[in-house]
Amino acid sequence: MDDIIKISNINDFIFCPVSIYFHNLYGNQEKLMFQSKYQLNGTKSHETIDKNKYSTSSDKITSLEVYSEKFRIIGKIDIYDKKKELLVERKKHIKEIYDGYVFQLYAQYYCMTEMGYNVSKLQIRSCDDNKIYKIKLPDEDKSMKEKFENTINDMRNFDIEQYHQVNGLKCRNCIYEDACDRAMNRGE
Length: 188
What we know:
Elements: E1 5-6, H1 8-15, H2 17-26, H3 37-45, H4 47-50, E2 60-62, E3 65-68, E4 73-76, E5 79-81, E6 86-91, H5 99-114, E7 121-126, E8 131-135, H6 142-156, H7 168-172
Parallel strand pairs: 1-4, 6-7
Antiparallel strand pairs: 2-5, 3-4, 5-6, 7-8
């Protein structure tokens, strides 16, 4: 993989590293051709952030491009509240908090703090039901911090030729299953 890691790829990598390959392959295609209804709805719910129409408050920063030299990660944040020193990652609908969600937020956190912003609180928000999930800062959860660092390292050292998916449920829920030669249900 490239040396610089996109924050948005962290959750995808945990789901299935090969999905990043397909996402890049289909990236310039019309989204309706390959994205699921769930993904299209998520993209739609993110429009207010991406177009900086979430809030007119000068205390809220949205869609800020961020970078961490330490981790060599790049991406955009969803929401940063300067007054509350709060960094927020939004998801369309959350059934459970996956490590990938937390790691995306950690990546944003590291970028923001390196760039000089004070971040003392982290949240993940579920847009559909307005649920808020408070997330511990990396230094408050050493186990998750270590898993995050290991994931970033794994992404840098990933070899697609050596990878074989072992979770058939992930394949069945993957929009790229039909195109993937590593899918579980291929009679291997």
